[in-house]
Design goal:
The protein is mainly beta. The protein is built from two helices and eleven strands; from the N terminus they run E-E-E-H-E-E-E-E-E-E-H-E-E.
């Protein structure tokens, strides 16, 4: 069973940075796309970005402030968020999908395994 777990959420002020980690087994990072998503209560889940191997993409509206990278020391895919804004407040989820056809599936949210989420609150 594939497990992924988010960490690093918390309360920050607007303009600050935060790093979220999606921790899993090293073998999962080798074979699965890791996707990041976020959701505000009452709204639809929003795709943030996906990474597997050298394939790495962040949604257009966030790519100037957010980036994904693999952290081998932690067996994680990290989501680095800079210049945070109050509208970034959400619960952030990571999830995994098998790499085959994963590029499209990840961007459409068709993930196989989900974490429980970590809350990020950005105060103005």
């Amino acid at each position: 069973q594939v497990q992924v777990k988010e960490s690093g959420g918390g309360l920050v002020q607007a303009g600050e940075s935060l790093r979220l980690s999606c921790t899993t087994a090293a073998s999962v990072l080798d074979d699965y796309y890791i996707g990041w998503f976020r959701q505000v209560p009452g709204k639809e889940r929003e795709w943030v970005g996906c990474k597997w191997s050298s394939n790495n993409i962040v949604t257009d509206s966030l790519q100037n402030r957010f980036r994904l990278y693999r952290d081998n020391a932690r067996n994680a895919v990290n989501l680095e968020m800079n210049n945070l804004k109050p509208e970034d407040t959400a619960t952030y989820f990571c999830a995994a999908v098998w790499f085959k056809d994963g590029w499209d599936k990840c961007q459409s949210g068709e993930m196989q395994y989900w974490g429980e989420g970590t809350l990020v609150t950005v105060s103005s």
